[in-house]
Structure formats: structure tokens, C-alpha cells
Amino acid sequence: MNERSVLIVEDEVAIRDMLVMALEIAEFDCLQTDNIRDAYQIIVDQRPDLVLLDWMLPGGNGIELLHRIKRNDDTRELPVIMLTAKTAEDNVIQGLDVGADDYITKPFAPRELIARVRSLLRRSVGGEAAERLQVAELVLDGQSKRVSVGTDDIDLGPTEFRLLQFFMSHPERAYTRGQLLDQVWGANVYVEERTVDVHIRRLRKALENRTPDYSQLIQTVRGTGYRFSSQGVAL
Questions:
Q1: The overall pTM is greater than 0.70
Q2: For the domain 5-124, what is the CATH code?
Q3: β-strand 5-9 against 29-33: which pairing, if any?
């Protein structure tokens, strides 16, 4: 039996069969369904390592299932790649805002999809250093995957955690969106640069409702990208 399993949630039989073939050739175990009700049951019962989730599905849509996955403490760390024919920016951002780790628009090349699956799985199994980082009362524990300010835990998704970990490990330097994609998402991942802005916004939101406002540590550098700096921030 292969070690890594992928759940395919796709109602178009031809696409689902193509995905199964590509994944099995790449030595993944495949689970499959065409609706969100059965998909969630499979997630709970069989614990796949990653979900390929179509946007448009019978009896609901992929965003509804994504909401449910990310609201449940037992499944919120499950990596999800959205499969969609929708290319409008608002739709892409909606999926990322809800908690998708990546998205790929149809039609796509099987080799590109496999590259994204492998990269996302590498990131989800603990590739980050198990180090403890601290700025004032903001603490990131790489071993327990917890972030806190004082005695209060901060709820972060896996991508926001990796982004904050990279920033705290590399303070006082400006990084372009492309550099952040390479460092946090992986150099071989095909993700658009605006994805960085979405996750920066989510990370800032998680840090802002504190006293002091730790979201100020993540600074926008005009013409470049972003920098993590405590200079000029009252902590």
C-alpha cells in the first residue's frame, strides 16, 4: 500500500479518471467521490493526506466543503487544492480566503498537478525547523506548531504559520512576492504572486486584534514586497 493518499472530489468522470491515472502512476493511493456529502464522510473515516476539490459539484459546491473542513479542528490542517474552471480573481481569492492551500484552473497538465501535490505534501509533513522564535510576547513554536501572544493562542492556518515562521526567521529584510513564494510555497509550485497578498492579509488580521498590534510587524515595502521588522513598532 502506498503511504500517501489523495481524495479526488470531482463530478466529471473523464477528469476524475485522468486524475486517478496520473496520481496512481505517481504512486499515490486514490480515493474518489463526486459530491461533498460523501467527500466529508471519506475525510472523517479514511483520513486522506490531501484533497483535490472541484469548485462546482452537485448538491453544493467545493467552497461549502472547504468551509466545513477548515472549521473542524480535526480536519483544518488537511491540505486542499481547488480544481476550478473559474479564473476570475474574485473566485480565486474566495477559495484562498476560506483556506485552500493552492488552486489550479482547468485545463491543466497532469505533470503540473502532480508537482503541486508533491510540494504541498512536503510542506505539510514538518519541513519547517522545529525552532522557537520570539518577538516581544509573540512566540512561534515550530515543534508544537503553535503561535501565541502572552497566554493567548493565535489561530493560524498552515500557510500563514509557515509565512510567519519565515518572516520571524528572516527579520529586517525586504522580500519580493516571488521570493516569498519560493521560500514559503516552494520554488517548483505554480502559484500566482497575488496569492501572497491574500495570505499576508489573513496573517495580519490574525495578529491585529492584540495589544499591542502585532500586525504592524509585517510591513509593506513599496515597489518591492514585504518586510518583517520591529523597528518603529511599539511593543
A1: no
A2: 3.40.50.2300
A3: parallel
